[in-house]
Amino acid sequence: MNLQNLAITTGVVPVVLYLLAAAALAWLVWGHRRHLRRRVPAAAVAAVVLSALAWLLTERVWNLWGAPLPKRVYVYAGLGILALLLVVPKIQDLRRLTARVAVLPAALVVVLASGSLINQNFEYYPTLGSVFGDTGVKIETLDQFKSQERRDPQPRQGQPPTTLSNWTAPAGMPGSGTVVRALIPAPLSHQVSSAAFVYLPPAYLATPRADLPVLVLIHGVPGEPSNWLRNGRIAQFMDDYASSHKGLAPIVVMPDAGGKGANYPPLCLNSKQGQAGTYLSRDVPNWVKATFGAGRHSSSQWAVGGFSYGGTCAMQLAINYPGVYPTFIDSSGENQPTIRQGHQVLLQEYFGGSVAEFKKQNALDVIKTRAYPGTAGIISVGAADSFYRPQGVQVYQAMRSAGINVQFQEAPGGHAWTAWKYGVEKNMDWLMGRLGVTG
Fold first, then answer.
1. Is the predicted pLDDT of residue 434 greater than 70, yes or no?
2. In DSSP terms, which residues pair with 199 in a beta bridge?
3. For residues 415 and 382, is the Cβ–Cβ distance under 8 A?
4. Are 155 and 210 in contact (CB under 8 A)?
5. Disulfide check for 267: which of 175, 301, 337, 379 has CB 3.0–4.6 Å away?
6. Where along the chain do its domains lie?
């Protein structure tokens, strides 16, 4: 069995862990009268105070997450804190050395279980390997990909776009796609970014190659492009989709939209914090077309999507650059670009304090000034997401009022990967129809 692929949010692993943690916590709590009446209540009060302090500092003072976390996350953290606070009192309560040696491992089991509960809330790490950065797929550098003689050249100029009806999977087509890691240059925007990832489906690796559309997927903040691979398992999903569609799936480009080393995220806008709008609307598409020969026929071959910060970006890019991204999927995005420091800081640091300059690129203001006859999108949000769901509804209603072809969908769960993946995974047939492959 490959431990890298061991599921840690479903199946037997979390069940066993929680049973062990419950037994360990019960043992840490149980003891002589003084331990039960004095030390345990004191540790419990301290755990509550520390958890409440963590909530106060991270959400009310520093706003580290940019949005409120479910209260149960702090409860889960409090259980781990309680276990650690009971280590010294439990050792004092025991007489046998062998029992004392077991106290710290017991506490660590509870801490591990509390971390697992938090992880289950967000489904951030689906496998054991993902905790350590494993994506579950092999990743090549662009040079490695180009150097392999078995690779055919790019699809020929003049070749029509590949569709499900005109494509026959050739003999020898790989059973799965490949992922390439590359640094996307920014000759127009001069945007500083880290490496991007590109998923190439089986039909692209075939001989002859399919001429395929492009889906640009944007990560959240804090986050990075590899989140779509490691946490969202997008390569495995696309492989599964391609296996029942003659090897056809979009080429998926996952660029860095967070700004490498930036004090403030670039928000997929052109501002004092960088020309991220130009980077994502011109530099990235130009590079994809030149490097992989994809999406060269028309903008109808291009779509953009993302989750949370990336969902906001997808919506912004579709509205500001409808000639580049006429199709979008906004998963759990916001109603406007935001930073954790607040809107006034955003106005000052990005637009020199000018509300008018902000409105020139803010999607819900821009849609009041132009028409979008060719644009269509999906807005999905977790049904239990009390913070982002109302914003998704607002975006949907505003776009509908502006005459934009948009759908609103409720995904299971809250602000977590279950909901974040929903927009792409549940709408692939719609997306492939929009991109001209099916339908």
1. yes
2. 179, 252
3. yes
4. yes
5. 337
6. 3-130, 135-434
pLDDT for res 79: 98
Closest CA to 230 of 102, 123, 340: 123
- Residue 203 backbone phi and psi in degrees, to 5: -65, -25
Q: What is the pLDDT of residue 380?
A: 98
Please name the amino acid found at residue 359.
K
Q: d(Cα 392, Cα 181) in Å, to the nearest integer? A: 32
pLDDT, one tens digit per residue, over 140-175 is 999 999 987 555 656 666 778 999 999 999 999 999
Q: Report the candidate in 36, 44, 27, 55 with the shortest Cα–Cα distance to residue 79.
A: 44
pLDDT digits (tens, 9 = 90+) for 15-55: 999 999 999 999 999 999 999 999 999 999 999 999 999 99
Share in percent of the chain as helix, strand, coil (round to 5): 45, 10, 40
Cα separation, 235 vs 172, in Å, equals 20
CA atoms in the 13 A half-sphere facing the CB of 427:
28
Q: Which of 328, 311, 343 is nearest to 223 (CA)?
A: 311
CATH topology of domain 135-434: Rossmann fold (3.40.50)
Buried b (16+ CB within 10 A) or exposed e, 365-387: bbbeeeebeebbbbbbbbebbeb
Rounded Cα distance between 322 and 318, Å, is: 5
